[in-house]
Amino acid sequence: MQEKVLRQAEIDALFQAASKAPDRNAEKDRPQAVPYSFSSAGQISNEQLRAISMLNDLFARNLTHNLAAWLRTRFQVNLVSAEQIAFNDFLLRIPEISYVASVRLEPLGALSVLQLDLALAPPIVDLLLGGEGKEGPLRELTDIEEAILASLVEVICRELTAAWQPVGLRFRYERRQMQTQVARIMAVTEKTLCLSFEIRMPHSSGLLNLAFPAVVANTILRRLTTDWGRQRHGAAARARMSAAASKIRFGGSLQLPAFRVSASTLEGLEPGSILRFDLPDDVRPVWRAAGEPLFEASPVRWGERRAARIERILPEEGS
Fold it and tell me: Are 167 and 51 a contacting pair, CB within 8 Å?
């Protein structure tokens, strides 16, 4: 077989083509652009959902115990969902006959919406008026029934304030809102944080829904994420700090209590002299760590080393 010999011009052409070829590895390392959907901006992350669920599970448990004691019946509250939706979508979920109230959130001064299914109203009113909590027809409330239900909403706001204390928000019931007035509380296109709770009673069940405006939702999510991250990493951080602290070395000493010596006695000291300690024979030395007195101890020998045997723990100063 005849070998092909390349001329210099052909070699130069091959090297020039190789230098212009794209580097596959460089293409892989280069950041890749992906399409972005602005509709997904500000969505709740999984970490934020876990923090919200923990906080509202606490609210659900407290509300369960307090309302069960107030109504003297079995009362169960469970968190169903936590999601971010447009306020218009929240309005579409409100039944035609429903109890809707505005709740002011301090210190932000913003308004949120609380919606309670009216199927829960007849048994609650019946229980508070001395009945057995029987289910009633779905209808509009009378003035007396509305006042009774307003007291229930105030209890809910009080429990929300207690549960949401870590984020620094206070819930204050403002007033009931008619269906035509609810849409004016915030813009219908505003993205809200919606929380849904299921309420179960012996003869009835229904939903409690809360909708927070974007400014409140952002504040809540930012603080919750910070606190959740701090709690999540707290155990590992404490373990690391404990392991590091266990390696710290402190200066220690075994000392007798202070006593006075006359200047003439010190002046006459020389090798072989005996210095009398003006202390009773039952006084034990004190072992100190970093200058702090911790134990009474006796001097002993441990092999070829001197040591201290702990006799008694010293009480803390002022105790």
Answer: no
